[in-house]
Design goal:
Elements (H helix, E strand, L loop, with lengths): L3 E12 L2 E12 L3 E5 L6 H9 L6 E6 L2 E2 L10 E5 L10 H6 L6 E2 L6 E2 L3 H14 L15 H13 L5 E5 L7 H18 L2 E6 L2 H7 L2 E6 L2 E6 L1 H6 L4 H8 L2 E9 L2 E4 L2 E4 L9 E7 L4 E4 L6 E10 L4 E7 L2 E7 L8 E6 L4 E5 L8
Parallel strand pairs: 3-10, 3-11, 6-9, 9-10
Antiparallel strand pairs: 1-2, 1-4, 4-5, 7-8, 11-12, 13-14, 13-16, 14-15, 16-22, 17-21, 18-19, 18-21, 19-20
The chain binds adenosine-5'-triphosphate.
Adenosine-5'-triphosphate (ATP) binds next to helix 1.
Length: about 350
C-alpha cells in the first residue's frame, strides 16, 4: 500500500482580505503522480508554492512524512521545482547546467562543516540523469543549441539530480507546441516511474491531467471540487463544474421525478441515478459523445443544427433544442440547418445536485 508523504490540513491562504485558497485538505502519497487541475486563478500555483515552502498558509498545517513543516524553508525540504520558464544557464553546457546544484558545498549534519561532492560522483550522477531524461551524448552541447523539449529535459534533470523525494512541476510544458507536449507527457510519466518519486503537477489542460496522473485534484475558486483517479473524475464527476471542466458537457436544468426518471424540457427520460428527493431540481450533465443522432421522427428530442466544425476524427455540431444549444460529437455529417433527432441511453445522463454553475460553453 502507498504511504502518505505530504498532507495539507485545513490550509487557507489569504492576501489581505482576498481568500485565494479556502480550507484545503489534501494528502499525497509517496511515488504518486498527482495533478492539480483547474482554470486560471483557481489557486493551483499557490497550493504548489505552499508545498514547496515558498509561501506559508495563513491558516492550517503542512506535513511531510508526518512532520509539520510550515516553518521549514524551501531549501531544507526534500522537494524541487520545475517551472514553465525553466531558466537554464545559457553560458554553461548541458553537463554543467545539470551539475550546478551538486557543485554547491553542503553542510554535513554531523560535523557541521561544508563539504563538496567528489568530481567523480558529480560526473556519475549527471550521466545517470542524462540517461533518465534520454539525452545520452548531449553533455557537451550548449543549451542554446537544444530544442524546447530538450531544454525542458535538461531542466528536469537539473531538478532531479540532487534526488528530491518530490518534484513540483508548474505548467512545465506550457511553452511547447502540441506535438512536443504529447511526447513530453509520455516522457514525464516514464521519468517519474523510473525515478520512483512523487510528482505534483499543475496544469489547466484536462487532457494532460487525465493522461498522466494517478490522481487528479480539480480546483475552482480556491476550493477543491473533486479528488479521484482520471477515470473517476471523467466518469463520475461530482458536480456540474467538474463535468464541464473535464469534458465540455451540456448542463441542463432538470427535475428528478423518481429513482431512475429524470425530466428535461418537460420530457421524462430513463437514467441510472437514484437517491434524490422526489421532484428535486437537479443539474443534468450530458456529454457530447453520449448523444446518438437519429432521424427526426425517431428522436427523443428534436433540434436544428446551427453550427458544424470538422475535428478530424469527428464533427462538433451545435444543435438548438428549444432555444438551448447543445454540443454533440458525431462521425455523421449533419449540414447546418438540418433537423435531427437524438437519443440518449440511460447511462448518458449524469444527474447531480444543483450547483448553480452555469457552464463554460
Ligand atoms: P494560473 O493557472 O493562471 O497560474 P493558478 O490557478 O495557479 O492560476 P494562483 O497563481 O494560485 O492561481 O493564484 C490564485 C489567486 O491568488 C489569483 O487570483 C492570484 O491573483 C492571487 N494571488 C497569487 N499570489 C498572490 C500574491 N502574492 N498577492 C496577491 N494575490 C495573489
Amino acid at each position: 500500500m502507498s504511504k502518505e508523504l505530504i498532507r495539507l490540513s485545513n490550509c487557507t491562504m489569504a492576501f489581505d482580505s482576498d481568500v485565494v485558497l479556502d480550507n484545503i485538505n489534501l494528502y499525497i502519497n509517496d511515488q504518486e503522480f498527482l495533478t492539480l487541475l483547474g482554470p486560471s486563478g483557481c489557486g493551483k500555483t499557490t497550493t504548489l508554492r505552499i508545498i514547496g515552502g515558498f509561501q506559508t498558509p495563513t491558516q492550517g498545517d503542512v506535513f511531510f512524512d508526518g512532520v509539520r513543516i510550515n516553518d521549514v524553508p524551501p531549501h531544507k525540504r526534500a522537494i524541487n521545482t520545475v517551472f514553465q520558464r525553466y531558466a537554464l544557464f545559457p553560458h554553461l553546457n548541458v553537463f554543467e547546467n545539470i551539475a550546478f546544484g551538486l557543485r554547491i558545498p553542503k553542510v554535513d549534519p554531523e560535523t557541521k562543516r561544508k563539504v563538496k561532492l567528489p568530481e567523480q560522483e558529480i560526473h556519475d550522477r549527471v550521466m545517470e540523469m542524462l540517461h533518465v531524461v534520454n539525452l545520452n551524448g548531449f553533455e557537451k552541447r550548449s543549451v542554446s543549441s537544444l530544442s524546447g523539449g530538450q531544454q525542458q529535459r535538461v531542466a528536469i534533470a537539473r531538478a532531479l539530480v540532487n534526488r528530491p523525494k518530490v518534484l513540483l512541476l508548474d505548467e512545465p510544458l506550457g511553452a511547447l507546441d502540441l506535438r512536443l507536449r504529447k511526447d513530453m507527457q509520455n516522457e514525464l510519466k516514464r521519468i517519474q516511474q523510473a525515478m520512483g518519486i512523487t510528482f505534483i503537477y499543475v496544469t489547466h489542460d484536462q487532457e494532460e491531467a487525465l493522461s498522466m496522473s494517478d490522481t487528479v485534484v480539480v480546483m475552482d475558486a480556491g476550493k477543491i471540487q473533486q479528488i479521484g483517479t482520471p477515470e473517476d473524475i471523467y466518469n463520475e464527476p461530482k458536480n456540474a463544474f467538474v463535468a464541464d471542466f473535464i469534458g465540455e458537457s451540456n448542463i441542463i436544468d432538470g427535475i428528478m421525478r423518481a429513482d431512475g426518471v429524470v425530466e428535461i424540457f418537460n420530457r421524462r427520460f430513463q437514467c441510472l441515478d437514484k437517491g434524490f428527493e422526489k421532484d428535486e431540481p437537479v443539474d443534468v450533465v450530458i456529454r457530447p459523445e453520449d448523444v446518438d443522432i437519429v432521424d427526426e421522427a425517431a428522436g427523443q428530442l428534436k433540434g436544428t443544427v446551427t453550427n458544424v466544425t470538422f475535428k478530424g476524427m469527428h464533427y462538433d455540431i451545435i444543435v438548438d433544442f428549444y432555444g438551448f444549444k447543445w454540443l454533440i460529437q458525431t462521425t455523421d455529417f449533419c449540414p447546418e440547418g438540418s433537423h435531427i433527432g437524438i437519443k440518449i441511453d440511460p447511462d448518458g445522463f449524469h444527474v447531480m445536485k444543483k450547483s448553480h454553475y452555469s457552464g463554460m460553453f
